[in-house]
Write a structure and sequence with these properties.
By secondary structure, this protein is an all-alpha fold. It has one domain. 49% of the residues lie in helices and 0% in strands. It has six helices and no strands. Helix 1 packs antiparallel against helix 2. The longest helix is centred in the first third of the chain and has 15 residues.
């Protein structure tokens, strides 16, 4: 479980891209692509919805792999997650996630990562 907590504290095991990937669920890929395309005003297709978790080896969505500012920051700083970053309390980037999803902050504290 600990490895499935994303850099931002979200639980990858609850992510629709992860669930679609591990269950090979094409209907969920299509539903997720449609929603994410609308939310991000971007051309996201069902074939883009494949991810095995942002902190583990394996395939990732294009967003998680190379566009996510939080992931890129954590990798550049060499921290396991934002929970290990001394700037987390002042960080506006991860602050958006935490303010919209209190479980993310709980995960970062609970798993001490």
């Amino acid at each position: 479980m600990k490895d499935m907590i994303a850099y931002c504290g979200l639980n990858c095991e609850k992510c629709d891209a992860y669930l679609a990937t591990i269950n090979n669920d094409q209907a969920l890929r299509e539903k997720t692509a449609k929603l994410w395309a609308k939310l991000n005003n971007a051309p996201i297709l069902p074939e883009h919805i494949n991810c095995q978790g942002c902190r583990v080896a394996g395939i990732k969505t294009v967003f998680c792999e190379s566009i996510c500012d939080i992931r890129q920051c954590a990798l550049n700083k060499g921290v396991e997650t934002c929970g290990k970053c001394s700037d987390m309390d002042e960080c506006q980037t991860v602050g958006i996630i935490i303010s919209n999803n209190p479980e993310a902050l709980k995960n970062l504290k609970e798993y001490n990562i």
